[in-house]
Structure formats: C-alpha cells, structure tokens
C-alpha cells in the first residue's frame, strides 16, 4: 500500500456512519418549525456530478469567472507561496481550478495536494484522475466533512500549508460561521500558512437569479438530489414531483436562498419517521452569500488586479467574481468577511453588472 492510499483509507467516515449523520441531520432539520437541510448533503456522487454540470451552464458565471482569474493570474497567485508548498482544498469536488495552480507550482515546489471532500466516491474519482493528469503529483486525499475537521497528512518535508478555498463555497456559511471557519483553516495552515479564498460578489439580482434558476433546470435537479438521496439512502418515499425548486436573491442579507417547496399538503416518511408539510411549506436547502469588496471603488467592472507585498491581501476582480488571497495574520479580519463588508451600507449601489 502506498502512502497515498494509506492517508485516504484513514479517512474518518465509514459509509455506515455517514448515513447515520445524514439521517440525524435530516431528522433534526425537518423536525424544526422552519425546515432546513445543510447544503453539504447535496454532495454524494450524483450531486457532485450535477454540480459539475451547473458549472458548465451558461447562466452560472461563478466557476467560469473564477477560472478566468486563476488562468490569467496563476503565476502571481502562487508567486509568494514559498519553495515548498502543500495545497489543501476543503470541498475540492472535481478540483478543476486547482490543476492550474498545481501545474504552476510544478514538481519542485509542490510537496502534496490534499483534496478534502465529503463525497468519498467522487473524491476517489478526482484523485485517480489527477494522478493520471499530473504524473508527478502526490495526491493525499481525505474523505471528510470540512465543517467538522480538516484532516492533514504528516508534513514530512516541512512544506508551507496553503488552504485553498475557492468557488465561493464560503458563501454557504452565515457570516459568523464563515469567519469561524476561516479562522479554523488559518489555524490548520499553521504559523507560516496561508488561506486563499475565492468569493462571489454582489451584483445585479437578475444575474444572480438566472444563475440559480437555469433554463435547463439543472439547478433544480441538484436541489432535488437531496430528496433523491433520502429515497436512496434513508429509505424515504418522497415524490420528487411534489416539491418545486425555488431560488431567489434576498438583498437584506445579500444571499441567494434555495428552497424546496411542497406543492401540496403531504406527509413523507423517512426511515420510518413521518414529516408533515403544508401546501407551500418549504425546506431551506442552501444559502449562498454574496460579498462586497472592502474598498469603496466597487464600480470597477473590468478586470483589476492589485498585487501587494506578502503580508497583505491580493484581490482580483473580474466582472462578477473576485478572488482574494489573504495571508494568515490577516485572517483575524478576513478581507471579504468583515461585518461592514458583509452588511455594507452600499448594498444596492455596489451591485454591478457582468458586462
Ligand atoms: C458550491 C456553494 C459555491 O452557492 O453557487 C450552485 C452551489 N447552488 N447552484 C453556489 C450552488 C446552486 C454553489 N457553491
């Protein structure tokens, strides 16, 4: 057994207990007066593939925009990461953007790549693909729920730890939790570590609306995958047609809310337990918070790239997405996440169009 496999198989979640955690969360979330489910349950193998399909949609600008930023700035982004780096990616999914950075680092500077993902099977497929795509790459994957833990392999060559958190995954967390999560990543990265963050920005609600209500209905399928998953894994009897995908921008909090709305009064059974729905009652399945840049010049609609010396923050803004690179000491006040930013007065005036 190679060291690569060893770290993977030490992953904390056996299939049985993963099902158990899903069940516990579902019982709690659907038992509450306002029904909710964590977006992390979207991501089994099928859900991860549906998310990949979302990333290809014409309306879903997030991935494309960020990929564009990483493509055109890969060199600058990795420039001061140091001579020996291990890249840790919570919620890695298919690691699409990451390969660009790994290739930029190259075999001399890259000690290891540590994708961490809750979707065990999908993670294994990603790791296998990466190993063939980049032959020199040491992939040490960990199947884990990064909201609970960020397992790190032994750092045998004293590499600098860079926690790479792109894709606006941070948007899934309410501001307070987002700050705590980033602080935790900062501690995991250690003294000389870095946390590199990619966040989506506030913009014209019509653009946001389209991105979460695509014409092909893939986002709806992705949303309903959590119901399909309950049927598959938790012995539920949910008629997917009896729920509607509903996503909207909520400007007061600056977030997309995604819901599953019951089309009728009904009762569903999950692992022998019954849950009642009124007609129109919803399960909130996701928040996707959008952020402001901390600067006042939010009017820059074109690509603007500011680079400053290590110890400060780098942001790159490309139309509708932003990419921020924050050094660890700065994490106490994360760039995109300070309250004044998240709840900025210029909530509406700071929205800008993608074109
Ligand atoms: C993976 C959380 C960044 O919020 O845009 C895409 C998930 N949900 N379409 C996002 C998602 C609906 C996505 N994140």
UniProtKB/TrEMBL annotation:
UniProt-listed GO biological process terms: methylation
InterPro entries in UniProt: EgtD, EgtD_Methyltrsf_superfamily, MeTrfase_dom, SAM-dependent_MTases_sf
Record keywords: Methyltransferase, Transferase
Protein name as annotated: Histidine-specific methyltransferase SAM-dependent domain-containing protein
UniProt cross-references to PANTHER family, sorted A to Z: ERGOTHIONEINE BIOSYNTHESIS PROTEIN 1
Pfam families for the chain: Methyltransf_33
A single MF term (Gene Ontology): methyltransferase activity
Record domain Histidine-specific methyltransferase SAM-dependent: where: 25-298
């Amino acid at each position: 057994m190679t060291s690569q496999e060893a770290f993977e198989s030490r992953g904390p979640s056996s299939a049985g207990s993963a099902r158990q955690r899903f069940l516990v969360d579902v019982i709690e979330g659907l038992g509450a007066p306002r029904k909710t489910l964590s977006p992390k349950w979207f991501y089994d193998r099928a859900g991860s593939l549906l998310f990949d399909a979302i990333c290809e949609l014409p309306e879903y600008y997030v991935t494309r925009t960020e990929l564009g930023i990483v493509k055109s700035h890969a060199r600058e982004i990795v420039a001061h990461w140091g001579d020996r780096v291990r890249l840790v990616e919570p919620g890695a999914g298919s690691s699409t953007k990451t390969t660009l950075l790994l290739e930029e680092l190259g075999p001399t500077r890259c000690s290891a790549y540590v994708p961490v993902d809750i979707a065990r099977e999908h993670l294994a497929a990603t790791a296998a693909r990466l190993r063939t795509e980049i032959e020199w790459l040491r992939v040490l994957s960990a199947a884990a729920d990064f909201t609970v833990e960020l397992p790190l392999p032994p750092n045998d060559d004293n590499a600098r730890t860079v926690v790479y958190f792109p894709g606006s995954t941070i948007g899934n967390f309410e501001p307070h939790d987002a700050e705590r999560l980033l602080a935790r990543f900062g501690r995991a990265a250690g003294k000389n570590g870095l946390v590199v963050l990619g966040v989506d920005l506030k913009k014209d609600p019509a653009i946001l609306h389209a991105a979460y209500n695509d014409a092909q209905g893939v986002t709806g399928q992705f949303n309903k995958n959590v119901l399909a998953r309950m049927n598959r894994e938790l012995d539920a009897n949910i008629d997917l047609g009896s729920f509607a995908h509903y996503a909207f921008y909520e400007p007061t909090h600056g977030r997309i809310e995604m819901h599953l709305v019951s089309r009728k009064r009904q009762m569903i059974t999950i692992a022998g337990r019954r849950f009642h729905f009124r007609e129109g009652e919803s399960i909130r399945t996701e928040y996707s918070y959008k952020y402001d840049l901390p600067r006042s010049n939010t009017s820059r609609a074109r690509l603007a790239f500011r680079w400053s010396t290590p110890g400060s923050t780098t942001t790159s803004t490309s139309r509708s997405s932003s990419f921020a690179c924050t050094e660890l000491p700065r994490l106490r006040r994360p760039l995109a996440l300070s309250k004044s930013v998240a709840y900025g007065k210029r909530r509406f005036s700071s929205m800008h169009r993608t074109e």
